[in-house]
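Students often ask what a 'structure token' actually looks like in practice. Rather than answer in the abstract, let us consider Protein yjjU, a protein of 123 residues. Its sequence is given first.
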Amino acid sequence: MVNLVQHHETSYSAIQQFIEKPPGKLRIIEIYPPKPLHSMALGSRIPALREDYKTGQLCGRYFLATVGKLLAATPPLLRHTSRIAVPETVVVPPAPVANDTHVAEVISAPQANDTTFTDEDLA
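Now compare that with the structural description of the same chain:
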């Protein structure tokens, strides 16, 4: 576990140095979320990772929709939206379903309403 943490720190430092001083004419634009992430570097739970993943997707989409268009060598393709087909109204007649309550007749003989009653119960 200690080796894993040391490797993480080493690789993180190398990445930070690369971002701060990129080689040649390379330009790095760092995209970061507007609020702190829920996950940690190590030992994060799945819900926190999923939430941070969604946040990252939103940040990336926002970047592409704003600054990303300015960085493209050629303008993006225009996409024409297709018409949405609206289905006709479907009328479904009422029918019994599994969750409906079962309505049964009540019989005046007491043993008739006992589901566990058999002929052996008669004296």
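One point worth highlighting: The first helix runs from residue 2 to 20. Ask yourself how you might have guessed this from the sequence alone, and why that guess would often be unreliable.
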